[in-house]
Request: fold
Amino acid sequence: MKTTRHILFDQVWTTPIVHLVKQYECTQITFKSTCIKNDIPLPPSNHWTKSYFGRGYPKPDLPNPDFNPEITIPIMSERTRKAHEQEKVIRENLAKHNQKLKPITEYTNLHPLAKSTYDLALIYEKEIKKLTKQWSWRDREKYEVNLYNDKGRFILGAADKCFPFIASNPSIFRSIKLIDPLFKALEEKGVKCAVLEDESFYKGSKKKETVFIKEGIEIKARIREGYSRISSKAKLGESIPKFLLSDYDEQHYPNGVLYFDTCHEFSFDTWHTFKDGSRFKLEDQLPIIFNYLLDTFSEIKAKQEARRIKREREKHIFEVDEFNRIRLDSRRDQYKSALEEVKLFKEIQVLNEYLNIIEHRVFSLSKEEQTVANRWIAVVRLYANLNEPLNRRIIHFKKIVSNPDGMPYEYWMLDKREY
Reply:
């Protein structure tokens, strides 16, 4: 943003810098460095506290007052802006929630899942000490655990009967101090953390997952550690021991920044993340994570109910549409049947006239010939009467009235349904 040297000088002595950085959308470091660069005197740090009691420092004269160029204050980057917004949200949430959760200081009285994770971390720690003394991938079968890792981070999960982690061993110990009070607080609210077995994609196999469960609602969670890229200079320095377990990856190392990720059926495999910040670590955000999980259970329950209502509505609409379609098809079929009956009715009328003509002509025949002719006429008339459409239609109407429940396919009689 642009301003002038005189305006900026007046502003820094009438408004605290905390408010000015919001106006100029920059950081305090950028704002102060801009003032120093343009030779603008800044008030001492305790100026605004003293001015509250009427004892503030007097405003000095501006050096070189004739010099008044236009000044451009760099706007903070999008990354910095998001970090500031995130810190603001965390601060507001911490002030809103009264729940006080603090990480444990000793590994005693642990939650069963935290205890199994702690025991496995101890085994890893012992094996790491062996490896740092004599490292060889050829001897990895000798060790008690599979030391598979990703960029220096171990991968633990439900298959190991512990909470999912992607972190270095020191960060796992730190994470245990976080998850233990969280698990216990959630259990007091009726939320269980357990390892479940689900049918896997492959036939006959089962996949284990660690989830938070409440009233049949599941939320997946994990803790992972970030990683950074190492410079060639750092490779030759103190960072070399970090790569003894790097799975031949000499470009990255775990940086100690922890992320707590959650995912559920409505997030579509998109993880909601809490992370270590410059001012608020995960230890400080435990109350926010706790309340977020409880609120998420309520939101999922409401979404499940809305989904159920939506599906019932869609099912009802489908059934109504299907019924109206069948009803319309039935009415069209009645029209086609009537046309066929009319055609048959005319043909039978012609047939009766034809039979009458034959009856008049057979009088000239012998008795035996008349007997044959009359029998043939009787047979044809019998089947003509049986197939006469008018009689059949009248009989059908009577059946519908006398036994309506026994005629389930007469959709043409029913009224159109509405949604």
Notes: Residues 200-205, 235-247 have pLDDT under 50 and may be disordered. The longest strand covers residues 217-229. The longest helix spans residues 286-361.
